[in-house]
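Researcher: Structure prediction, please.
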Amino acid sequence: MSAYAIFLRDQMLDQAEYDRYLQLVAPSLANYNGEMLVFNDAIEALEGAPADGSVVIKFPDMATARAWYNGPEYAPYRDIRINATVGRAVLVEGLAG
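Model: Predicted structure follows.
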């Protein structure tokens, strides 16, 4: 069953560092079969607080998504994102089928 890492950015703190993060992070997905589905700064809030950016990454399953997030390929870049933005990150399981 597929899984998705969803990042919602509430506030940009350091655009230059975030741009550096984006350049570095993409290769970290390869060993985990991660596929970036959404990378979009245009968000329309239908309910709740608006966000100013989002990323959705698809993985084969939750175990693989967790392994990427906690793994050595992504770990050096996670802190760059956390320090450059204010936001939320969640893992969600997809539907079977």
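Model: Strands lie at 3-12, 35-40, 53-59, 85-93.
Researcher: Thanks, that helps.
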